[in-house]
Design brief:
Distance between the termini: 49 Å
Strand order of the largest sheet: 10-11-12-13-14-15-16-17
Low-confidence stretches: none
Shape: globular
Strand content: 15-25%
Helix content: 25-40%
Number of helices: 14
Mean pLDDT: 84
Radius of gyration: 22 Å
Largest sheet: 8 strands, mixed, barrel
Length: about 350
């Protein structure tokens, strides 16, 4: 097992001791443990590794920024510094249980087919919103699963977008509807664009694909899940509102939240209803919660709580946010919950708003 990052000798000795105790007690050994020294040394060492190696490691974090970065990088496990034995064991188990990245697709195959077969580029409608709501890695996984379901030669581009050798977009539409049904919760729509042979000859297939993406060209659209999507309050479990990313959605009983102002990795939401109204601010640290004024609630950005489990970066982040929101008496909105994530948040303090596949749709 590698130890990455630099820590003062006093802290390093304590970390080594806890790690040795966890391993001698039978905890699975991660590929690496990175120590957060406050200067980001570990980030450079971890970021250059392939996705499969990042998922097999653990970050020992000293700050919320380090935990959020571990979530962005797809690190399998996380724990706070100074470490505890229980937290270390949970982090090691989380890294061992991390699912390997989905199959990668080779663009060289498409380059060889480009002159002979139609190639389409599949991207997401309302991409900027879904980047923050689900995160780029989750969007890429959705496209990889779509490509696997179709079974045609494909490549994933870092937009993310899918290059696909397919003669008819109907096959894409049918496969996406089946995927959306199995995923549950909110699912984005797709935009499909055909790359002509002429366009691909002008600089190659990848350049043509990015020109089409940046230019906004589209041939067909495939709808995602129909909203608005319900939001329930815990621990009571009652439905308190809905969220949507479309302004023309029908109104239901309770409040309705819609994204208003976008930042680089988060949104501000407008919330309107008879019982609740105001703004909802997305936060990533307990400090941000403490400094929030004039809001109806605070929210975890969607990408930051994907895969919520004990011992993972999202678990550490959301726990701290829930504690801080409870101290302020503010609801904390946690999106994208699956069944295991729901079990996790049931143990958190305070008033929680939740949505996602685990929340029943009326």
């Amino acid at each position: 097992m590698e130890l990455l990052g630099r820590l003062p000798e006093a802290l390093r000795g304590g970390l080594d001791s806890v790690i040795s105790g966890a391993l001698s007690g039978g905890a699975p050994e991660p590929s690496w443990v990175a120590a957060d020294d406050g200067y980001g040394v570990w980030v450079a060492e971890v970021a250059e590794r392939p996705a499969a190696q990042r998922a097999a490691g653990v970050v020992a974090a000293a700050s919320a920024d380090a935990v959020a970065m571990a979530q962005r990088l797809g690190v399998g496990g996380a724990m706070w510094l100074p470490p505890s034995s229980l937290a270390t064991i949970e982090a090691f188990k989380a890294a061992a249980a991390a699912a390997p990245p989905a199959l990668e697709f080779d663009p060289a195959v498409l380059e060889a087919l480009g002159a002979e077969a139609p190639v389409r580029i599949v991207s997401f409608a309302d991409r900027e919103f879904w980047r923050v709501q689900l995160g780029e890695r989750a969007l890429a996984v959705l496209l990889k699963e779509l490509a696997a379901a179709i079974g045609a030669p494909a490549a994933i581009l870092p937009w993310p977008a899918l290059l696909l050798s397919s003669r008819l977009p109907a096959g894409v539409s049918e496969a996406w509807r089946e995927s959306a049904s199995s995923i549950g919760g909110a699912v984005p729509g797709l935009i499909i664009t055909e790359l002509t042979v002429g366009a691909m000859r002008e600089g190659g297939m990848l350049q043509a694909a990015y020109r089409a993406l940046v230019g906004g060209a589209s041939e067909a659209e495939v709808a995602g899940s129909i909203g608005p999507h319900p939001v329930h309050e815990l621990p009571q479990g009652r439905r308190v509102g809905w969220w949507t990313w479309k302004e023309d959605q029908a109104r239901f009983e309770g409040w309705l939240a819609a994204p208003a102002e976008a930042g680089e990795d988060r949104y501000r939401w407008d919330l309107e209803g008879e019982s609740e109204q105001g703004i909802v601010k997305e936060v990533l640290s307990a400090t941000e919660v403490a400094e929030t004024e004039g809001t109806a609630a605070v929210r975890v950005p969607g990408w930051a709580c994907r895969g919520l489990r004990p011992g993972v970066p999202a678990g550490l982040l959301v726990t701290r946010l829930a504690e801080a929101a409870a101290r302020r008496g503010l609801p904390l909105w946690i999106p994208n919950l699956d069944d295991e994530g729901l079990r996790f948040v049931l143990g958190l303090p305070g008033r929680l708003w939740v949505d996602g596949p685990a929340v029943p749709v009326p």
